[in-house]
Amino acid sequence: MFIVKIVLLTNDNYFSYIATGKFLKNYKSDIALVVFSSALIGKRNALNSTLWTLKNTGIRHTIFKLSVYGVFKVTRILSQLFPKVICGCSTFLWVKKNNLKFITTDDVNSYECVETIKAACPDLIVSVSMNQVIKKEILELPVNRSVNVHCAPLPEYGGMSPYIWGLANKENYSAATIHYMDEGLDTGDIIVQEKISVLAGDSAFCLFHRCCSKASQLLMETIKKIDNGSVDSYPQDLSKKSYFSWPTKQSVVDLRQNGYCLAKFKDFYLAILTQKPRL
Q: Model pTM?
C-alpha cells in the first residue's frame, strides 16, 4: 500500500460534498487531516461578498448562489432533526461525526496551516472545491503528489463556474476531471477525464451536480490506482487552454438565451430529499 495518510483540502458546500462522496466513506481511516477553507470573495465578510456578487455578476446569479447556500443550510438543519432520513450534505458535519482531525482557515498558505499539513505527513493531498490558490510549498509535500477535482473539460474552462460558462457558450458537454496540481491554475497533468453531456433545457445546478457525481466516482478510481502504483497521466495541451473567472451579467443572459437556466425547483428537491446519509 502506497497511501497511508491523506490530507483533504475543501470548501464545505453542497457540491463539494457530492464530489467527495465515496472518498469520505471508503478512505475514512486514511484521512489524516481535513483543511476547510473559510475564505469568501477577496476575504470580504458575508454581506460584502453578497454585495460584490450582486454588483459584478447580477441579481439572477446572486439569487442562485444564495438559494444554493440556503438549501445547504436547510439540509444541515433537517439532518440534525431527522438524521436517518435527511443527509446534511456537509463534509464538515461528516468529519465531526466521524471524529476526524480538521482545521479551518482563510489562508491555506499561512505558516500555521502549512505547518499543520506538514505535521500530518501526507502521502497524498486531495483538493475538492478549494477556493484558494495552493502554493508550491504545500503541493510538493506528499510523495504521491497532489490531485484536484475540476468539473470541466480541461484544458478548456479552467477557473471558476465552468458549468455556467459552458451553458453560456452553448457547449454540448462539460466533464469531470481529476488532475495533478502544479503552481498554475488548473494546468497540471490529467489523470482521468469523462465528458458529461449537456441536456436540452438543462440547469447550471443540475449539470454541476452530474459532474460532481461523476467526479466522486473518478476520484475513487484514481486513488485506487495511485495506491497500487498503476496511475497514469498525460499533459494538457495548453495551446487550447481557456480560463474563466466569476460569471458576468452577460454570461447569465447568454445562458438563458441558449435555453438554459441557473436552477429549477426540482433541483432543490433533489438536493434536500434524495441524498442519503453516509455513516
A: 0.92
The residue type of 149 is V
Place of cell 491554475: 185
- The answer to whether residue 82 sits within a structural domain is yes
List alpha helices for the chain, DSSP H. 14-26, 46-57, 59-81, 91-97, 111-119, 136-139, 162-168, 204-228, 249-257, 265-273
Q: What is the largest CA-CA distance in the chain?
A: 51
Strand partners, 148: 127, 179
The CA-CA-CA angle for residues 42, 138, 184, to 5°, reads 65
**What secondary structure letter does DSSP report for 261?**
B
Q: How is residue 242 annotated by DSSP?
A: -
Q: What are phi and psi of 65, to 5 degrees?
A: -65, -40
The rounded radius of gyration (Å) of the Cα atoms in the chain is 18
Q: Are 178 and 189 in contact (CB under 8 A)?
A: no
Find, among 101, 96, 118, the residue nearest to 109 by Cα.
118
Within a domain: 26: yes
What is the CATH classification number for the domain harbouring 83?
A: 3.40.50.170
pLDDT, tens digit, 9 for 90 and up, residues 16-56:
999 998 899 999 999 999 999 998 887 788 889 999 999 99
Q: Is residue 276 part of a domain?
A: no
248 burial level (CB within 10 Å; 0-12, 13-18, 19+): middle
Mean pLDDT of the chain: 91
